[in-house]
Amino acid sequence: MALLEVRELGKAFGGVAAIADLSFAVPEGSIYAVIGPNGAGKTTLFNMLSGVYVPSDGAIEFDGTSLAGLEPHQVATRGISRTFQNLQIFFNMSVLENVMVGCHQRARSGLYRAALRLPGVVREEQQIRAWAIEALEFCGLAHLAERPADALPYGELKRVEIARALAADPRLLLMDEPAAGLNDTETAELRELIRRIGARGVTVLLVEHNMGLVMQVSDTVLVLDYGSKLAEGTTTEIQNDPRVIAAYLGGEVQYAVQ
Amino acid sequence: MSALHRLRGFLALAVVVALLPVLFPDNYFVTVVGVTIGFNVMLAVALNLFIGFAGQISLGHAAFFGMGAYASAILTTRYGWSPWPAMGVGLVIVYVVALLISRPILKLKGHYLAMATLGFGIIVNIIMVEAVDWTGGPDGMSGIPGLELFGWAVDSDLRWYAVMAVVMLATVLLSLNIIDSRAGRALRAVHGSEVAAQTLGVDTARVKSQVFVLSACLASLAGSLFAHQQNFISPVSFNFFFSIEVVTMVVLGGLASTYGAVFGAIVLTLLPQVLVVFEDYEVLILGAILMSIMIFLPQGLFVGLVRGSTGLLRRLRPAAVATGD
After folding, report:
1. CA of A168 vs chain B CAs: smallest distance (Å)
2. Which residue has the higher pLDDT, A152 or B1?
């Protein structure tokens, strides 16, 4: 069954269509990749899925209900988390606190209860901390928990974003170019991490330029070109699709997979 | 983290505040300036929640301070109310006004938010000057009664010191509790990356509005207490320059640090008092000091000094010093 269904989606910026008439469905429990050249509309798609942009046309359904008109924080509450292509780390906090913000929607206590530090607040804090540490351990970051976020190198910050998104206990995780800027070792670690996220039962929607990574982890690949669907299929189908090769992959993909 | 460890800075502050009047019972700087410091710490800590932690800006916070003060003054002198319900009504008025303006105003960011809050502050101040029948106009209002707590009249400098010490410490504790909580992290997340905060389920518009209102309410309480302590108020105490002064306290001490705001309020209240000995050059020297602090300690006096001293300690005893917070 499809967890996420996108129908005839469109987004125009002042007459320029960034996404046009795009339909696809992401089955629950799968790892689904979206690829395409720069400017193909991948990040625009992500911004619509997470409620940051309002679509010009079409519909997005998550778990059978429409996401139309929802604010980003309401989309998050439905069970969709995301990471960002350009890091959006809270540099004014520790690594642990970053991930604790990820648990925001799993807890309840508000400003006034916190100000008086009622007993329930303290219990909830311990629970949030436990959730956050679990997410950090899952991403291999537990030893960095107390470090200030601005003291970490880029590769680790990318994993902090993943841990933070997982701390929200999402059903769908949107990953926007998680391998960008990573070296080969870090990319290999990321590949394992994505597989373990999938094994955990979280559906993953991945936007990525690193073809090796995409072909190794994905169940289904969607190819975008100029905001429209060029092809969709398994990794083998995509690698052998002449339109994809002509428009985008060239000879690179065979090389990358080997 | 145990409560004792978390609040060790607060306990140290409380001990100092309690000991000062015992050690120096007749010292002008303790019992008179100390009460003023109490008001300023309250205002700076409250404003720091909004500008230091949530990363917003308000150049009109003196308006809320003044609204509390005038509500108390008008209700007690013109209608014969007792101070406590008057203070409560002031609080409710400020709560409603802050809530009403927060949603439209907080859609703005940066310079535009600064302009909007500045405008609000100026409008409120003009009302204080022009609504002569209610506020007494530029001459202000006198004869505001003192406070009484269960038959205990707050009628001396030392007693006011005690009241303000308790209220100020309560404000500091409130701020510390908030920052180290789910709501406090949401606040700081708004500062760090608003879009990331939203995609993690933080209703950023609501968070900003809530902290703005809380900050305004604390300012209103401070204003009511100020009116009863001074027995006289006039619009000059609540004008644009005072709004700027409170912002300066927050920035001077160090943004996003509760103790920084406390420190900034103390320094900025004491400095002009101390510099009086320089007579004509007083303002000049004050300006020079403020400028040098911002040039050499851009992260703020308190934060800068704490980092500097822990760095120095670490160099002296590399293994023995744990990381500070």
Report:
1. 7
2. A152
